[in-house]
Amino acid sequence: MISCSDDNTSTITRLMEEQTQAVQSMPQATDSVEPAETRVSVYGESIEDIDIDLTLLGPTMVSAQVFWMMISPEEFLGQTVRVRGSYYTFFWYEANKPLHFIVLDLTPGCCGQAFEFILPYNIVADIGYIPENAVIEIVGVFTNYEMFGNLFHYLAVHEIIVE
User: 85 is in which domain, residue-wise?
Assistant: First the structure.
């Protein structure tokens, strides 16, 4: 433990200077390297008119917006949504189909929220395999389908970015 006496103050100053010099002597990146990402769009161009852009909101507002969309889905049908999160999939055996989800990255220890999304066949062919837990961003239209007497809401993907 170090107290604030004159001897210790000079020790603290010396340690801070040594750490500063060590950081400054570290090799600096000369070229900025962009992370590789794959962007695929259904129509070959990005959608400009986004009705709900969840990527611009903080975790609390994202959580509130998604909750509102889930309890009042009829208010949002047909709206274009942009969302960013982690990719997750599982196979629904009763329906004999894979389900794709984007799990929203909210505050740790809080409730998880996700959107199901459906990729058109031309995107599936272009994008290929998406690794589990990959960070993705999708733009899609909020819509629904009925299966086994239940109504399911999802995003019909127009564009996907896999980072």
Answer: 38-162
